[in-house]
Amino acid sequence: MEELFTDMTAFSGVWAGLSSVFSSPELWLLVLVGVFLGMTVGVLPGFGPPAAMALLFPLVYVLEPLAGISLLAGIFYGAKYGGAVTSILMGIPGEADAVATLFEGHPLARSGRAKEALAAATLASFIGGTAATLGMVLLAPVLSRAALFFGPSGRAAIMAGALFLVAFTSPGGVRRGLAMVFLGLALALPGMDPVYGASRLTFGSWQLSGGVELTSLLLGIFGIGDLLDALLGGGSARKDTAEADVTPVCLRSAGMAALRGSVLGFATGLVPCGAGVTASFASHALEKRLSRHPERFGKGAWEGLTGPEASNNAAAMASFAPLLLLGLPTNPIMAALLGALTIVGVVPGPSLPQESPAFYWGLIFCLLMGNLFLLGLGLGLAGFWARLARLPFRLLWPAILLFCLVGSYVGADGISSPVQCLFFGALSVFLKRQGCSPAPLVLAFVLGPRLETHLLQTLLSGW
Known about the structure:
The protein is mostly helical. It contains 19 helices and two strands.
């Protein structure tokens, strides 16, 4: 396998991919469109990249294989950054992967540093995405094959380790953190069994027939919950002050955090274990553990912003390695891209770089080009987004409330979702008054079905 990437055929493949990219201006435009659409849907809670990819999926039938796959891929990793915009400005995560970005980004925005926070998130996204793409070129032949050794027991161990790491580093203390983990796992139980497909713990209620909806939980806890907390407290949430100044030492710490997050995200993205959300939460917990001033976390720590944002995007890029070289999708978006590859006649596998060098290496260059577009768009629009954050709270809160309710309805396509959203908003206020952090709850809820599946597979297989 390694010889495939070291002999002269590899260099000819790289040249073929480079030629296919630079000989097609239309390809550049499609990558730009994909990244911009991804950023847009990342900003809109409830819509998300799956819906945008579904709308544009028919284009793979009429576009060239490289162009169609690059367009869909741009939506995927563009949305990873887009989710950071609302997380930072409004405290509303566009998707689960952006929750960890919220913990430090939103306090920075409330202290008047929204533009700097957005710029830092953009640079961290660029570092994470670019580092993971280069890592995929250099190390994927070895690491993607090693990922096969992470069977159900290994994946379950990774998820359990992430849960305990977040619980032990949560601001509310270990006992409250573990309690939030168990609450998150309990909330993931109602609805459809992830293994056998049987309905369970619905208590005869049609609102729970589909289980607790992720979009409603996120928007309720972080959107409506913060909104209710601010309204009940007289809008004091707008008066927070971040304690981290922008100094050379701070910039170095943020840069090192982005590099650590890139490594963590790349390694996590190779394994089907909820890569993005696992990596971002683990990165935030790691940075807090390594920091000389952990008391700053939750109040605007720059390294707590750049680390998770870099790991989030690195995990997104790294997930292309097992998809292309093993035909192994590590998340639902990669599963959709696997279907698109099948439609265009591209067969993933270890021999893909040799059999389709123009496509494989062309896609690598398109990923790098997409990260450059993401950097330019993110920095260019940071000032515009930051101006929105300066609007008075009395004008923002009705829009935030509507944003959350509509987003929850669109995300699950049902009236029960806004009801769940309001419930979790009230629950969030109660938990915060008890000194509990929502981070372990969210991570446990997201990883719960996958952890259950891998544990059951481990028991059935005897290992």
